[in-house]
Amino acid sequence: MEIDPFIFRFSIFILSIFIGYYVVWSVTPSLHTPLMSVTNAISSVIIVGAIIAALAGNSESIFNTSSIFGYLAISLAAINIFGGFLVTQRMLQMYKKKKRDK
Amino acid sequence: MSANLSAIFYLISGVLFILALRGLSSPESSRQGNLFGILGMIIAIVVTFLSIGNFGNGFIYVLIFILFGGSIGAFIAYKIPMTAMPELVAGFHSLVGLAAVFVAISAFLNPDAFSLGSPGNIKLGSLIEMSIGAAVGAITFSGSIIAFLKLQGIMSGAPITFKGQHILNAIILISIVFITYFLCLSQSKNLFWILLAISFLIGFLLIIPIGGADMPVVISMLNSYSGWAAAGIGFTLENTALIITGALVGSSGAILSYIMCKGMNRSFFNVILGGFGASEQSSSNQNKEQRPVKSGNADDAAFLMKNASSVIIVPGYGMAVAQAQHALREMVDTLKKNDIKVSYAIHPVAGRMPGHMNVLLAEANVPYDEVFELEEINNDFANADVAFVIGANDVTNPVAKTDPQSPIYGMPVLDVEKCKSVLFVKRSLSPGYAGIDNDLFYKENTLMLFADAKKMTEDITKNL
User: Fold this and answer.
1) Smallest Cβ distance to B359: which of A33, A64, A86?
2) Residue B445 burial (CB < 10 Å; 0-12/13-18/19+)?
3) Which residues are registered as beta bridge partners of B312?
4) Given the residues B380, B394, B437, B439, the one annotated as active site
5) Residue A63 domain-assigned (yes or no)
6) How far apart are CA B196 and CA B81, in angstroms?
7) Count of alpha carbons within 13 Å of B417, Cβ hemisphere only?
8) Per residue in A16-51, pLDDT tens?
9) Contact yes or no for B45 and A6 at CB 8 A
């Protein structure tokens, strides 16, 4: 009897929840704001679905109802990807240690 | 590119995202972690292009849309002031939610492109996953919009409640389940649109009763939702990178909500059901006799601090509102020149999002090793000479430890009252978010400084 591929994906999902649980508990509380902005950026990997929606349709025209939604989703996700990673980088640059030279 | 090869690359990008979060365990490794995240994203996007293999005109348009969105995002990221970070994050959540909705719509209208079947005959499993992704995405979108409007001050931060609110919400949530069920039976387009419409509606209704200071919980919760929405779409697209990321973000947001709720000693449901801070206000202010307070000016405060050997600073949301973080840092620099030991004490729910105060202090060039969490510093108050409370209120209220009748009883608070003297910068004696009087105002050793936080801090620096 074969196992449905869904079960494999579901296993990845459940194990990732556990990875997320342990990884996030180890995040220092002072970096909770960058944590939120970076999780925001990485969840925009949904752009992968948007690109498929825009490109993979086998219809003749580039723009049809379903691909237009794909293009819209691409621009929304792109705002998040660039905005999320850059603002995280900007915040992280500000976290500095005490200067010990005094 | 073969499906197996691209699946392996998606797995790699998922692993890089895990490393991006892992990096945040300390500020030193965090910048490298962020680069891992960017690398993971680039891999995921390039692999998608290669596996579709369509480099015609459509590809050019995709690049244009990415650059278009990307430049807006980059512009916002560079321009946004650090005090506006909660609004920014709420706004970004709404975009993830809406993107999930759009991808789901596209997959529903043109399932061939995703090899999920044909219109009107979509595989059952995919349809269920798609509906969940779309519904959660829609809730994330409208909920985040409300959170954004409340944080931005366009909408009042006060909770909006009405009779039968919870029953209405419950009915809508149950009907979402039923509509999904009938959608799967009939594959009807109309039911899909109805599902989206009521999901938007419930997202809106769920957030309006929640008050401004509970926003840390709301933002974390919406963060979690955006993850579950991404995971739902990930199952539809059979894409491991999305499934891994969705699960990571989902559990991250859930943990942050839990930490925030614990910081207020309230259950998650108590926060979500909302209305906190609206009802108690009237009852607790009555039958309170006028008690004497000592108030002082910048000169008195400077005198106290100059003669101290250690000072603990307790910042709160008021510091963010007054943009006082830079003035505060200058004051601390002057104190340090006089060989006074200064540290900062941060309550978990200070501000409007997790870690809000830490970012503002970092922006003002405060070294992160002078900033301490509640558990780390609470014992030090007894040995400190001066506590300087700037823009915080409820998180310092000793009532949380002494009065079981109080709505904030049991909430972990900073033991500010144990300091030899307390300087409390506040505009008036008005109660804080919880709507209760702060006993700290009336203590023998408390000196109230009635002024705008930024102006008062600047004046103190001049007098030091």
Assistant:
1) A33
2) middle
3) B343, B387
4) B394
5) yes
6) 34
7) 18
8) 999 999 999 999 988 999 999 999 999 999 999 999
9) no
Interface touch B226/A50, C-beta < 8 Å = no
Angstroms from A17 CA to nearest CA on chain B = 5
**Which pTM value belongs to this model?**
0.89
b/e string for A48-79 if b means 16 or more Cβ within 10 A? bbbbbbbbbbeeeebeeebbbbbbbbbbbbbb
Q: Is A54 within the bounds of a domain?
A: yes
Work out the number of other CB atoms within 10 angstroms of the CB of residue B194.
16
Among B51, B243, B359, B182, residue whose Cα is nearest residue A56 = B51
Query: Does residue B369 carry a catalytic annotation?
Result: no
B117 SS3 class: strand
A14 lies in a domain? no
CB distance B400 to B364 below 8 Å: no
Q: Do A67 and B256 touch (CB under 8 A)?
A: no
Asked whether residue A36 is domain-assigned, the answer is yes
In tens, the pLDDT along B402-433 reads 888 777 888 889 998 888 889 988 887 777 76
Q: How far away is chain A from the Cα of B361, in angstroms, using its nearest Cα?
A: 9
Q: In one letter, which amino acid is B213?
A: A
Say if the Cβ atoms of A73 and B102 lie within 8 Å.
yes
Is A6 in Cβ contact with B27 (below 8 Å)?
A: no
The DSSP 8-state label assigned to residue B295 in this structure reads B
Joined tokens for residue B264: 């207020």
Query: Which site among A7, A9, A48 would you substitute to test the B interface, given the most B Cβ atoms closer than 10 Å to its Cβ?
Result: A48
For chain A, the domain total comes to: 1
Specify whether the CB–CB gap between B276 and B214 falls below 8 A: yes
Task: Return the CA Rg of chain B.
Answer: 25
What are the Cα distances from residue A96, in Å, to A36, B27, B162, B348? 20, 8, 47, 21
Instruction: Show the domain range for A35.
Output: 29-95
Q: Is B287 left (phi over 0), alpha (psi -120 to 50) or beta?
A: left
